[in-house]
Amino acid sequence: MEVVPSVLFSLLNTPYKNYDRLRIPHLNYIGCGSAPLPIEIQKKTEKKFGLAVGNLYGLSETGPTHVDNPTKDGWQEGSIGKPLDVNDVKIFNDDGKEVAPGKIGEIAIKGPNVFIGYYKNAEAYNCVMKNDYFLTGDLGFQDEKGVFYFIERKKDLIIKGGG
């Protein structure tokens, strides 16, 4: 099942007196995307419903780029997981240089699923590309195991509805 964070907020604030996890045995976990997912919501959902919540990460310009499967060994709550095999993902500093694991920088994505331009706006496209990597505008870091974490947007973002 895939949802947006506002659905989890609603579910967590709805009383379920007769909830029985055994009534949905084939649901392994919930995927949540389209907006940042606070780790507290992940933990509260797992506690209330007995279901882990995996972060879904991707952008309109890239489609999905990371897999965060909470049923896998070594899963890290709060992460966005590891990149899909088709993507090369790096963390760049403001000078466009790759940073070491654990250091926060901008998430940059390369791969065949990354868009090839903004319609009639080559200047905007050139501003978000660095050495064939798409600069997402998202800050994050990669740990020593290759797991990525989203921290926040570089610039303010207003999400209207759904998020």
UniProtKB/TrEMBL annotation:
Domain AMP-dependent synthetase/ligase: from-to ranges: 3-119
GO molecular function: CoA-ligase activity
InterPro entries: AMP-dep_synth/lig_dom (IPR000873), ANL_N_sf (IPR042099)
Name under which the protein is recorded: AMP-dependent synthetase/ligase domain-containing protein
Organism field: Desulfamplus magnetovallimortis
Lineage: Bacteria, Pseudomonadati, Thermodesulfobacteriota, Desulfobacteria, Desulfobacterales
